[in-house]
Amino acid sequence: MAKENPYLDVQHLTKSFGSLVLFRDLSFSIAEGQKVGLIAKNGTGKSTLLSILSGKEGYDEGEIIFRRDLRVGMLEQSPAFDPNESVLDACFNHQGDPEKVLKAKQVLTQLKIRDLEQPMRQLSGGQQKRVALANVLITDPDLLILDEPTNHLDLEMIEWLEGYLNRGNKTLLMVTHDRFFLDRVCSVILELDDQTVYTYRGNYSYYLEKRQERIDNRRAEIARANNLYRTELEWMRRMPQARGHKARYREEAFYELEKIAKQRIEERQVRLKSRNVYIGSKIFECQYVSKAFERPEAEPLTILKDFYYNFSRFEKMGIVGNNGTGKSTFIKMLLGQVAPDSGKFDIGDTVRFGYFSQEGLHFDDTQKVIDVVKDIAEYIDMGGGKHLTASQFLQHFMFTPEQQHNYVYKLSGGERRKLYLCTVLMKNPNFLVLDEPTNDLDIVTLQILEEYLQDFPGCVIVVSHDRYFMDKVVDHLLVFKGMGDIKDFPGNYTQYREWEKLQPDEPKEAKEQKAEKATKQSANNPQQKRKLTFKEKRELEQLEKDIEALEVEKKQIEEALCGGTTSVEEITTMSKRLPVLNDELDEKSMRWLELSEI
């Protein structure tokens, strides 16, 4: 990568844990404005490398050089907060500065964290990760280091984050399994493989092409070395022990050649196809199901409203939608874990569910990996007289024989998720229900899972924000839009987005019509009107103050820009601030109107 005045220069870095060498003699650099994606298999040291760069983890050898006075922002995989401080106070560095507080509120709103006074202990793990992401973005560092930034974001948030990171000359190093994100954001891919690092100057699609070229070239080099090795081996066996200078030189070259000839490129296994899966013609029928949850001081949260759907044999359905629209609740209702308010799910007699949930990661850490799977089954019947042992099945999902005899507590977060996936598949279900299966899995595992699901002769439902994964696997979508509005779309995610772009731009008119209808209903039904709550009154008062302050700031900026005495640096700063300020004004004015009409 560019060595000219880099933001970060890593030289000859080596890190090991006991006898396990994660990487050796690693060198790379990141220049200003580069957006770098780091790709590696689970357990090979991605998160460890980011921890080393952030100073939280030591290393054995090498040098890490940051440009002097460089401000670095780090998003960890599992951030920690003071459980008693508020969301806003958890956004460090605002120090009461109104501009920083305003930016914090804007970013948190985009990430759908709206109650800024809520104590951090009341937030879910996903919400805490979003607060941590907001923290990093708010501080506007010179170099952003992000570990799985798209985990716990819905599609709307992911697309917003893509736009945010693509604006301006931001410099970025991130680990992510989100291949759409890598394609759209990154200009350089670093691949950590075989204890070393390979650099590809392009996005994810470019990386795929060039990586295959590298592997093909390496395979050809090993084949050539093998041919020559056989010839040299004959010479070594014929030659007497007492050798001259030239012979000794040839002998040394032989040992170097032997190292290359004995290398093995990790071959992708043949696709795992199960034929021993039977599912009857009756799968499930969702018969006019309704479900809503009561909320204090707000209308009930509607998940389903008289929803009907008849699931087809061999269907591969994707479920997408923003967080809080009821995707996971729908799955739990299908599995009988949550009861509907009305209607019912009629499940076929032959259906055997395999459920991969977001909460299902519970293992005995003192067990060996192989024993976890053997406790479920010693082997899986693939049909056609073919069986796979537990060990062979694990090996297919990239657990080496050595890793299989490791204890569970030694596994990385991604490896634990992969083991959980193996335990679900090992039960040989005929209907797979996968709720966010891609979080924390490496790209190689995702490719194996994609192939498995493409060939799977049963039924599949996938809830996921991973657009690339959805495109590969599903042929049908349910789009949860919120408040019981569900769009049934025959196609994958990209096809849905293309269809959506072609639809007439009517949301504003539709919203106005709904608002007008609601106003008429309120006028006709005076008893439906309600008073502002104490919290809403306080919010309305604060909005009036905020709007007044923003109007003053806007006027000052506009006068300064027209005055002719402002420096170039100040003009640049003000020009960036003005559109942000206008957006904030629009948002607050709309909310003020909303509250003032209650």
TrEMBL record:
This is ABC transporter ATP-binding protein. Residues 8-219, 284-507 form the ABC transporter domain. It comes from Xylanibacter ruminicola. Keywords: ATP-binding, Nucleotide-binding. Residues 502-519 have a biased composition (Basic and acidic residues). GO terms for molecular function: ATP binding; ATP hydrolysis activity; DNA binding. InterPro entries: AAA+_ATPase, ABC_tran_C, ABC_tran_Xtn, ABC_transporter-like_ATP-bd, ABC_transporter-like_CS, ABCF_ATPase, P-loop_NTPase, Val-tRNA_synth_C_sf. Pfam families: ABC_tran (PF00005), ABC_tran_CTD (PF16326), ABC_tran_Xtn (PF12848). Residues 502-535 are annotated as: Disordered. Coiled coil: none annotated.
